[in-house]
Amino acid sequence: MARKYFGTDGVRGRANSGAMTADMVLKIGMAAGNLYRRGSHRHRVVIGKDTRLSGYMIENALTSGLLASGMDVFLFGPVPTPAVSMLTRSMRADLGIMISASHNPYADNGIKIFGPDGYKLSDELELAIEREILGEGKIPGVSPDKIGKATRIDDARGRYIEYAKQSVGAGDLAGMKIVVDCGHGAAYLLAPLIFKELGAKVVKLGVEPDGLNINEGCGALHPDHAGRVVRDQGADLGISFDGDADRVIFTDETGASVSGDRILTLCALALMEEGKLRGATMACTVMSNLGLHEALRAAGIAVLTTAVGDRHVIEALRAGGYSFGGENSGHLIFADHATTGDGILSALQVLRIMKRRGQPLSVLAQVMREYPQSLVNLKVRAKPPLESLPRLQATLREADAQFGDLGRHLIRYSGTEHKVRILVEHRDADVVDAWSTRLRGVIEQELA
Asked: What is the 3-state secondary structure (H, E, C) of 73-121?
């Protein structure tokens, strides 16, 4: 069965249309509730959200659907996605749901669902929810005496703050000055508090959400915003979160953005040195730079490569019993501490490494040679199989013959947006530019 609603990271779309109407969200709530209503005990689901205006509408519709399916609902208000994951486990809930479209503009919204173990649902479980939604007839609700209750949990943020701080043990951030850009998103209240409580001097950015300004010119999509303030304030580094704070992008003390692959590499090497990289193995997606593979291979670290999406990285870590992996987009998974990408926890780990080494981030980041790379995102109206585009396939075969072991290409559709992504990577920057331009032209012609 083809996936109709769920993409690489839950359900996502423009608010008040498609899968993000109040009616459809109510059905998603009922379907998920029915699937996870097992046994005679009182069932519970926890719900968090980011700061989008449409979050109010979706939260209420989702709550109604879950209550109608017999679930008790516990509402957290604005919290990061990893807080929902953690509190799902902590509160022994049957489900955890985050309402967010992550890095997308405010007009979009989405739903991420976690199972009782705090991990995102598998493809099979997401398809089971879709079958319930798409089935003939009305989704059944429970009898009047079984309808659920809704309760607000006022201390959800405080519970997550303590959990995050405990992830660095007795370490503190005394003597460090940090620029924290929350992107007017879900971390706007608690992220600055966590760093401040650990002893850092914090310069706050993006902490005035109005429902419409999430990710706008700030946060993980615009780390240069934090970078400018780092330079102006003489800070040690900048930390920029996306809308739901499961991703983080760093800027060093010069204000320069540090690539996600450099952060992955320095963390893997540090964990290896500390004896905490289980199996001397880390996992990343196909988007990671060839330079990461070279650097880790030289250090005796094996690299598992997965499809795009932090869920796929997590599945690889779980299957092999490994402790670390992530995406170059800013998802870092420290599996000894979390069951999903956690921007705040990841930032704390990087800060811990900086303190232990006594070196600035600009120095620590010199752990790999990055191959020149180009990533182009093109909007598309439809997503025909790339294998069905003859000119594109012929051009890719030609590229393979020229690249050999010195480069690569990766063409794929976005799982969350109507876009095709064109990645070209090679040791020679001129080759990257030429082939990126050529592939873009071929795709524009075939998808026009």
From this structure: EEEEEECCHHHHHHHHHHCCCCEEEEECCCCCCCCEEEEEEECCCCCEC
